[in-house]
Amino acid sequence: MEKYDHKYGAEQIQVLEGLEAVRKRPGMYIGSTSVRGLHHMVYEIVDNGVDEALAGYCTEINVVIEPGNIISVRDNGRGIPVEIHPKTHISTAETVYTVLHAGGKFGGDSGYKVSGGLHGVGASVVNALSAWTEVTIERDGGIYQMTFEKGKTAKKLEKIGESKKTGTLVRFLADDTIFESLDYEYEVLEKRFREIAFLTKGLKITIEDQRPETPLKAEFCYEGGLISFVEYLNKNKDKIHPKPIYIERAGEVPVEIAIQYTTSYSENIYTFVNNINTVEGGTHLEGFKRALTKVFNDYARNHNILKEKENNLQGEDIREGITAVVSVKVKEPQFEGQTKTKLGNSEVTGVVQSMVNDALSTFLEENPQVAKAILEKCISASRAREAARKARELVRKKSALETSTLPGKLADCSSKNADECEVYIVEGDSAGGSAKQGRDRKFQAILPLWGKMLNVEKSRADKIYNNDKLQPVILAVGAGIGADFDITKIRYGKVIIMADADVDGAHIRTLLLTFFFRYMRPLIENGNVFLAQPPLFKIYKKGMEDIYCYTEEDLDKTYKELEEKGIDRSTLGLQRYKGLGEMNPEQLWETTMDPENRILVKVTMDDAIKADEIFTLLMGDEVEPRREFIEKNAKYVKNLDI
Ligand code: 28F
């Protein structure tokens, strides 16, 4: 039996104690033993390769998930040094893989290491939590290899061949007595490696999953770095300036930022510290936001885009539609928050703020057309917010004074039971007059609108809410608008739009539909909105009851029926109705308002988004698509209430 001389030096004891601690409380070191912690095992090894790239020596990292959930990571950097340390008699490579935090130092020759700080526990932790780890290093003309089992050296570093290349290859099998599962999720790893590639300009990262029948593979390399990142994030959005804004500053805390605005209303700012995705934000985000608000307000004032008397643009106005990536490198990052993804270093706020103030204001001065495009959006966002606030106030105030909420022009019905009541929104005073006379005042209210209202699609919320032509509609319906809309408060079970069948009528109908769609959508979704269908024709003959036809085919059908009864078309009079005003109250009631005979068109939209686009189309200038939409989308139904 070979006698082992166990000369455990201080280092070996430190290593054993370190491994012991890691294997006893893995969650303390790798975050968790769930698949999240399992993925972090891969990130730790890859981050060492990224450090080598940041140091300028590695241009490619290849990750492979081999069958059996073995992970392989290779870089083409210098290769971890293999010479034996005179004091500890073990190689740097072995030290990096067995001593806790051995590789996580900062500064050094390469400036910043992404694998440092709370997130980067270094390769030794991965080694400790793996059933086995194999490290193969090419450098100094040779190929060297060492292996470990649960962190303990199994095969000491030895030369196994010659090679002219340099680089580091690490293969490991995570320990399934520690991790709940070894089932790596390809998509999660792929997403993270795409992110790292965006953050590390020019670095090529490939990932291959050899476990499935047909292997999966992806490769990422972005010479554009953060600019490519923002372009990727905006790929399905309408940009409001062609190229992302890019600003960077080296220094104590290197800062790199890319920004591109789109026509969307959402705010997407991604922040990173040493390539770590700080989803909870922190001081770097704070500095960025403050500077952004200051720079755009200053520019707007200096270039007279914001009038003297106008309020400053708020941060939320300026960030509407923004996509931005903020990446900073911090030597000793302090992470806070639930998931340790919030940067706490207070000095970073000022660094980022002053860098953005300086670099962004310079950019805007040099690119006035970009500045103008962005500010146009900010200013209209600010006006919309302002108007929404005022309108909410107005509606709240009005609804507070229950009594005087009803518009003067509304001829209300006597019943107060919303389910049986209906309000006709009628185009024009003359039709309004006939409707008031012809209606059944028990359950039918009339609200005449006059003239053409504004085009809700082309105007911001400000004009909509304050528009005196729409306010009566808001108040008559009585359920508020927008976010405050409360369907249980509607005063009528049916809101019936009664307009002429001509172009103006179609316009009014569409404007109201768009308004309801955008600001009282539940009204449509709940099926409370209807279109009144006045007759297009009247067939008359002495001694015969008038016959009303509502469509062309209706007319043809009626002619055929009459001919079958021996009444020839030539003996019949025909009146084509141009507008509601041509009918007297009696006829209007009989043809269009009497639940017994009228035809109501229920406006139902099963796909709000599609409808939204159609409305946008409808708000264009040609009327034809509008009419087609009405014919196509409004479902003709015989009035349901018998
Ligand atoms: C697949 C994972 O781990 N790559 C690495 C290097 C290169 C050096 C290094 C690493 C210096 C003192 C820590 C080489 N030559 N890929 C990797 N590539 N570590 S890890 O040095 C170790 C550090 O302690 C390296 C000259 N300087 C540094």
Task: Describe what this molecule looks like in 3D.
It contains 20 helices and 24 strands. 38% of the residues lie in helices and 21% in strands. The chain is elongated and about 125 Å long. The strands form five sheets. It has an eight-stranded mixed β-sheet with strand order 5-4-3-6-2-1-7-8. The protein has 642 residues and is α+β, with helices and mostly antiparallel strands. Strand 1 and strand 2 (70-75) form a beta hairpin. The chain has three domains: 10-220, Heat Shock Protein 90 (2-Layer Sandwich), CATH 3.30.565; 226-385, Ribosomal Protein S5, domain 2; 402-534 and 601-636, 3-Layer(aba) Sandwich (Rossmann fold). Helix 8 packs parallel to helix 10, helix 12 crosses helix 18 and helix 15 packs across helix 19 (608-618). The N and C termini lie far apart (103 Å).
Helix and strand layout, with pairings?
Blueprint: H1 10-24, H2 26-30, H3 35-54, E1 60-66, E2 70-75, H4 92-98, H5 123-128, E3 130-139, E4 142-149, E5 152-162, E6 167-174, H6 186-199, E7 204-209, E8 216-220, H7 226-233, E9 245-249, E10 255-261, E11 268-273, E12 276-277, H8 283-302, H9 315-319, E13 322-328, E14 335-336, E15 342-343, H10 347-366, H11 368-400, E16 422-427, H12 429-438, E17 444-449, H13 461-466, H14 471-477, E18 494-498, H15 503-519, H16 521-525, E19 529-532, E20 537-541, E21 544-549, H17 552-564, E22 573-576, H18 585-593, E23 599-602, H19 608-618, H20 624-633, E24 635-638
Parallel strand pairs: 1-7, 11-13, 16-17, 16-18, 18-19
Antiparallel strand pairs: 1-2, 2-6, 3-4, 3-6, 4-5, 7-8, 9-10, 10-13, 11-12, 14-15, 19-23, 20-21, 20-22, 23-24
The structure holds ligand 28F.
Residues 45, 48-49, 52, 73-75, 77-78, 80-81, 92, 96, 103, 168, 170 line the site of ligand 28F.
